[in-house]
Write a structure and sequence with these properties.
The chain is α+β, with helices and mostly antiparallel strands. It has one domain: Spore Coat Polysaccharide Biosynthesis Protein SpsA, Chain A (Alpha-Beta Complex). It is built from 7 helices and 10 strands. A hairpin with a 2-residue loop joins strand 6 and strand 7. Helix 6 packs antiparallel against helix 7. The longest helix is centred in the middle third of the chain and has 15 residues. The protein starts with a helix and ends with a helix.
């Protein structure tokens, strides 16, 4: 991940790394700090709060197990500009990317609503999509959106809760045409049942309407 940032992203970007090795980003401005959280939500909240406190208006949330492609940065920024231009009244929530190890809406293996292909790609890969939830393996978010909602203190379902809360406040989420490879390490654990059982009571207690919606999806 660090090597691809050095190779393919602008040198003047500021890289914030929580618990990482700043030496990996040689030649770039790096802000390093410890990760003291015990779950995904608290860890990301602390890191993102740190970035916005330094005065930035927009940030890219990034997993440490993704790899940028040579055109990721350009395509992603082109899509951000397209959304702003074509939907000027839209409050942008999260804007995520395509990948090979991610939820179906963002997964290049999934054809979307059709089986149409453009050469060796699904046609849907070349469209900016509106979506109810974004998995932020790499995702853009603004200060305005972040001041409206943050991640819950859970591992699983934290993305769903953040996106749900922002939607209730009038924000919309998008999937860019931009692509990153995702190694897909299971850093929070490999047992889907354990992760579900750990987080589900919080969702049911604090977001009952979202819990009902997710239950229907899980049963379907």
């Amino acid at each position: 991940m660090a090597s691809s940032i050095q190779q393919y992203l602008p040198e003047d970007l500021v890289v914030y790394t929580a618990g990482g090795n700043p030496a990996l980003f040689s030649g770039m401005k790096v802000v390093a700090f410890d990760n003291q959280a015990s779950n995904f939500g608290d860890a990301y909240n602390a890191a993102i709060d740190r970035v916005f406190k330094d005065g930035h208006q927009y940030i890219l949330i990034a997993n440490d197990d993704i790899v940028f492609h040579p055109n990721t940065w350009k395509v992603f920024n082109d899509d951000l500009e397209s959304i702003r231009t074509e939907l000027p009244q839209t409050k942008m929530g999260l804007v995520g990317v395509r990948s090979d190890y991610v939820i179906w809406a963002q997964n290049i293996r999934h054809p979307g609503s059709s089986q149409e292909k453009d050469g060796l790609r699904w046609t849907k890969e070349q469209e900016i999509l509106l979506t109810p939830v974004v998995a932020p393996i790499l995702a853009w978010i603004s200060r305005e959106a972040w001041q409206t909602a943050q991640f819950p203190p859970t591992n699983w379902y934290s993305d769903n809760v953040l996106c749900w809360d922002l939607q209730q406040a009038g924000f919309q989420h998008f999937i860019s045409r931009a692509y990153v490879h995702h190694a897909g390490s299971q850093t929070v654990g490999e047992s889907s049942k354990a992760l579900h059982d750990e987080a589900w009571p919080w969702v049911e207690r604090n977001r009952p309407q979202l819990a009902r919606q997710l239950s229907q999806q899980l049963q379907g």
